[in-house]
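INFO worker-7 received task bundle
INFO bundle size: 2
INFO processing item 0
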Amino acid sequence: MGSLRARNENEVTARKENILNAAAELLAAEGNGNITLADISEKTNISRTSMYNYYKTKEEIFLDLMVREYLSWKDELETLFPRKVSRETFCRRLASSLISQSLLIRLFSVRQFQLEKKLGAEKMERFYETVKPFFDTFTAMLDKQFPNTDKAKRDMFKIQFTLYCYSVYPMSHMGGQGTNDDFFGKVPDIKTIYYKGLMLLTSELI
C-alpha cells in the first residue's frame, strides 16, 4: 500500500483529490456517512499513516467534498438561470438541478451537528466562508427570478429551501419499500416530489 508522502503542492492536491474521489464513490455505494478512513485508505491504496498527512478524520473529507459539490452546483445554477423564467420553469429546472446533486444530497445525511462536534467551530466557519459563493449565487438567482417579492420573503425561501434539501435524502430513498408505500401511499418519482415541493415553497414568492 502506498505510503510515500507527497513532495510538492501538486502532489498534495492530487492525493487529496484521489481521497475525495474515493470517498465520493464509497458514499454513492453505501448511501450514508458510515464509511471509515480504513475504507478510504483501502480504495485509494494510500496507507492510513500517509492519509493522516492530508486528513485527520473522515469528517474533514466530507467537509471538503461538500465544498467541491457546492461550488460545482454554483456553476450549474449560473448556467441554468442566466435570465428570468416562469415560476414553473424555475421550479422544474431547480428540481432537475437538485436531483443532479446526488452526492451533496447524500452528504446532507451527515448532519451538521455531527460535523461541528467532530471538527469544531473554527473549521466550520472556514467552511461557510469557502462555500459563500454558492449562497451568493443562489441569492442573486432569487433576486432575478422574483424581483418584485419582498426581501424578507426571499430570505425565508432560502431557509425553507435549505431545510427542504436536508429532508430530500430520506424521501428520495423511499421508493420500492413496502412499509413506506403502506404509510404514504404510492410514492411518486423523485423529480415530481421535488417539483411539487418547490412549487409549494415558491407560492409565497408570487
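INFO item 0 finished
INFO processing item 1
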Amino acid sequence: MLQNIKNAKYNKLKIRHLFFDLDHTLWDFEKNSEICIRQIYEQHKGIFPDNVDFDFFFQKFSSINSAMWNQLDLSLITHDYLRTFRFQKVLQALEIDIDERFSLELNQTLLDLLPHQHHLMDDAFDTLEVLAARDYKMHIISNGYQDIQIKKMKSGGIYHFFDQIITNDIAGARKPEKAIFDFALERANANIENSIMIGDNLIADIEGAKNAGLCTIYFNPELGGNDSENISELKYLLEIL
C-alpha cells in the first residue's frame, strides 16, 4: 500500500547512486514507438477504414497504451493481459474487430521493432556522460523485461553508463512495490542515504521510491521549470547533483 510520504530533503554531497527509470525518462518511448507503430500501420493498412489515418491510429494507441500501463502500475491488470489485449482494445476503439491471436501478433511485432530504436530524451546522453565523469554510480529500475530494456539501452548508446539494470523479471516485483527498490539497493550495494530515484511516473517511480525511503527527482518535460525535486530538463540534474 502506497503512503503519501513527503520527499525528504536530500544532501547532494552524500548522493553517490542514481537510480533512473528508462522509458519516457532516458529512452524516448513516444518517438520510438511512433516509428514502430507507423511500420505496423503501413504493413496492415488494408484493415483500416479510409477515415482512420496514421495520426489518428497513433493517437488512439498512445492514449490506450498509457491508460493500460497506469492500470498495470496499480495492479489492476497483468503484464500478460496488456500484451495480449493492447492492440485489440486500440482497434476496437476504431471500430475494427480483431481476434486475440492477431492482437498478440501485432504486439509481438511491436516488441520486435521497439528495442532497435535509438532516440533518447533531450540531453539524456550528454547528461549521463557528465554524471559518469563525476563518478556517480548509475542504475536502471524498470518495469520492462531485462532482455528488451538492455537492447533499448544498447540501441540508444547508453548501456555502458550503467552498473545495475533492475527489471521486474529479475527482481520478482514491479514499481511501485517497495520490494523492487529494496532489491535494487541491495544489488547496487547502496542505501537510502546515498541514493536517489529519477523518473517520470508519479506513481511507479516517485511514490514507489518514497515509500521505500528514497529521495526522488520527478522528471516531466511539461513542468516548465526546475527545482531540486522536480525537473523539466534532464540537463538540470547537473546543477542540482
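INFO item 1 finished
INFO post-check item 1: The first helix runs from residue 29 to 43.
INFO post-check item 1: Residues 56 and 94 are 9 Å apart (CA to CA).
INFO worker-7 idle
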